[in-house]
């Protein structure tokens, strides 16, 4: 799979992851739930990116700039990278590569692969990191464009889907997404698959889309989580902003 380029990292929120505790004992960490989350990331070999590393700083800059008027209120607590070093991680990466190539062949050389953001609760993010996407639920904010996984080119448009945990932390995945040929889906639609073999995914709008929709049958072949961003944004508690 292609590596995340410098320019693409910076622009990923315009065109279109700690407080991950290092403690390993209950004496050091008062919350066993958070402890389990930290161990889960280690077990799946998610690599913590340190500040001043190029990838960390580029993703942080892109994330913050994508928050618009909330940028000054955002604190990026940590960023993790999917190392793809476990057996399941390697299998998912290889699957994504195969489907990317298949889509290129289908679409005349352009698989239309983009970066997009997915926000949810810490528990759902944990399940996705460990096992992949397993269920389709309606977005926790905004309109529903069909029955599929909703992802967002700009993180601000999906940030309310990132449910705050007991420590005031929210979590979003930065994913690589195979879009192929897209079709416009109306808000409130119950569509759950392409309307014809000519289409592969859905969007809310053609120019520019604010939402990508990946159908359930493709959710673990056409979405590859690359990074996990953990952040705080107190203003989101009252939703005191306008997108």
UniProtKB/TrEMBL annotation:
Coiled coil: none annotated. InterPro entries: Poly(ADP-ribose)pol_cat_dom, RCD1/SRO1-5. Transmembrane segments: none annotated. Pfam families: PARP (PF00644). Keywords: Glycosyltransferase, NAD, Transferase. Residues 31-243 form the PARP catalytic domain. Its EC number is 2.4.2.-. It comes from the Eukaryota. PANTHER family: INACTIVE POLY [ADP-RIBOSE] POLYMERASE SRO2-RELATED (PTHR32263:SF14), INACTIVE POLY [ADP-RIBOSE] POLYMERASE SRO4-RELATED (PTHR32263). This is Poly [ADP-ribose] polymerase. It comes from Datura stramonium (Jimsonweed). The lineage of its organism: Eukaryota, Viridiplantae, Streptophyta, Embryophyta, Tracheophyta.
